[in-house]
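Section 5.1 Outputs to date
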Amino acid sequence: MSSYTARSTRFTCSRRPVRADDDELKEEADKAAENPQPSPEEIELTGKIKMIEAEGGFRLQIAQMERDGKMMALAEGRNVSLEQIAAELEKVRMQMDSKERIIATEVAVQTANPDMGKGGGYI
């Protein structure tokens, strides 16, 4: 019969602190300098800004829902479809954009040539 003898293996750790290389320490210091910790005031202001942005988003959604409701009421009152109302609104929007471009062009020409265009009206 053979006998088995268990051997114990003992692991030891040195209690010396682990030190990183000087290059690693310098790299960590550079990163810390590039990304400083924000002050409590900055954190508070950032939170307030995010809350205001969120409220603005909610207000925009509410305004869009109110607009949609008014468009539905208008369509029902005029006995037309929402698509027809949307088409009319787009037509008006395009006309306004065209007028704005004309006015911007007139202003640019008058600014470049102050003596020209004293008669008023279109270019």
